[in-house]
Amino acid sequence: MPYFRDDEARSIIRETYGRVSSESAAVAEAFYPPEDLEGLPRAAVDLALGVGHPVRHAALRPGETVLDLGCDAGIDTLLAAQAVGSSGKAIGLDMTREMVGRARRNAAAAGLGNVEIREGLMEEIPLSDASVDVVVSNGVLNLSTRKSRVLAETARVLRLGGRVSIADLVLDQALPEDVLKSPAALAG
Amino acid sequence: MGFDGIEVVERKALGLGDLTRYPLFAPEFIDFLRRIMPPQRHAQLVFSIVVTARKPDSPSPTDHSHDP
After folding, report:
1. Quick check: A52 and B53 CB within 8 A?
2. Angle of helix A6-19 relative to helix A97-110, nearest 10 degrees?
């Protein structure tokens, strides 16, 4: 049973991610090797909020177009942009306006001209059918109250033979109802 | 619509100590979890996984996702 309506969940997530700040690289250092973090803007590294390193498993090739669902401040979008090179493109999508602004500033600070950051919902991806080669996502799918819709949208925007690499959280035992009802748990 | 070759390529337990790295969680929420979760789960609250998959090279006969 869902504990939050779609609009409630989005509001909580936007508010939480909009105000989050960090001056620590603790999350990034837990998941990314130092050589991947070198050269990235500190603001992107400090606001890594993911739960893995999906770009490492995406086997990106020069020239490919990559979509990062829920890009936050852009760490995975920037790593994808580096991997696909100037002949490719990395598109970051996020529904939180503050994160879109941060990701755009971080892409500019990184000097990457092959990055596009869009504001939008992963349940309604603002891209045309079969327009990307790879979709990555990092700790974001669990935030959606319509996960199957996100996966359907992912399949829609992927070209035939396209790939996905998704890092996220799963449970092997249920959480207590008091945790499931908590807005803090939802946003995390 | 569907994916082929679905594979879990990484799986790692995350506990309360890992959650403290995230600026998303206030100390009060971590304390709440510490109180409400059984001690044996403190080191293994959730699992982070990385899943890879592939969209098939050709549409399945039942795939209408690209119909106008």
Report:
1. no
2. 40
In this prediction, residue A181 carries a pLDDT of 86
Tokens for B59? 């549409």
State which residue of chain B sits closest to A57, comparing Cα positions.
Answer: B52
pLDDT beyond 50 at B49: yes
User: Which residues of chain A have a CB within 8 Å of the CB of B32?
Assistant: 182, 184
- Closest-CA residue of chain B to A24: B21
Mean pLDDT, 10 residues at a time, over chain A (188 residues)? Answer: 84 91 93 96 96 98 98 98 98 97 98 97 98 98 94 97 97 89 82
Mutation target for A interface from B4, B7, B9, B21: give the one with most A CBs within 10 A.
Answer: B21
Q: How far is B14 from chain A (nearest CA, A)?
A: 9
Compute the distance between CA of residue A179 and CA of residue A91 in angstroms, rounded to an integer: 34
Kindly indicate the confidence band of residue B52, based on its pLDDT and cuts at 50, 70 and 90.
very high
Q: Which pLDDT does position B63 carry in this prediction?
A: 57
